[in-house]
Design a protein that fits this description.
Distance between the termini: 88 Å
Shape: extended
Number of helices: 9
Strand content: under 5%
Radius of gyration: 31 Å
Order of helices and strands: HHHHHHHHH
Length: 201
């Protein structure tokens, strides 16, 4: 049981390992609540033990390991992530992805599309939801701040590495440019072969 902490290194730090080991030893010698595996779930038992406050690190680690997602739920989550994160949005941060999932699950629980969930009975006279408008403005402000922060970091990295951005060209223009370079190289190579042939003759 002392090895449990190694399975969750982010939960038990190096400074807390001694306290964790002490809790494990106390856990083995203390009188614990009865556990009936046929009538009680193991995570519920650990939660009730956590409420006593006697083994904070051990309970936190055990509950974290027992409540990990596994099986079809994990696969379905990855499938939903693929619907949201693609080649165009691969740099989406965790907070944005979490917000999208929260909204999606909320709409699923109500069995309504977004336009019905937020619809007003009378669009002309019903009051507008002020909190919804505030959330839109806040999301827009946070998005602009995030973009500015990323742009600032990119500029700092470019200046540190002494890189200069090049003008972007279209795929067709790039192909045309490559074709010109190849033709020029072929012409130069042909001319060189012709000169060598004259010299040898």
């Amino acid at each position: 049981m002392l090895q449990i902490s190694s399975l969750a290194p982010t939960l038990v730090t190096e400074d807390q390992k001694d306290s964790f080991d002490l809790e494990v030893r106390r856990f083995h010698v203390d009188a614990l609540p009865d556990f009936d595996s046929k009538r009680q779930r193991i995570d519920i038992w650990w939660k009730s033990l956590s409420a006593t406050g006697k083994y904070p690190l051990l309970c936190k680690t055990s509950l974290s390991l027992l409540t990990c997602f596994h099986g079809p739920k994990v696969e379905s989550t990855f499938s939903e992530m693929n619907d949201v994160m693609d080649a165009q949005s691969s740099r989406m941060n965790i907070a944005t992805l979490d917000a999208l999932h929260t909204i999606r699950y909320r709409l699923k629980s109500q069995s309504k599309p977004s336009y019905k969930y937020f619809a007003r009975k009378d669009p002309a006279y019903d009051a507008i939801d002020a909190s919804l408008c505030g959330n839109f403005r806040l999301a827009s402000q946070n998005r602009r701040k995030e973009q500015e922060h990323r742009r600032r970091i990119l500029d700092e990295n470019k200046s540190t590495l002494n890189l200069h951005s090049l003008d972007a060209v279209s795929k067709a223009a790039s192909k045309k440019m490559s074709s010109k370079i190849l033709k020029r190289a072929l012409k130069k190579h042909t001319s060189s072969l012709a000169k060598r042939a004259k010299i040898s003759n």
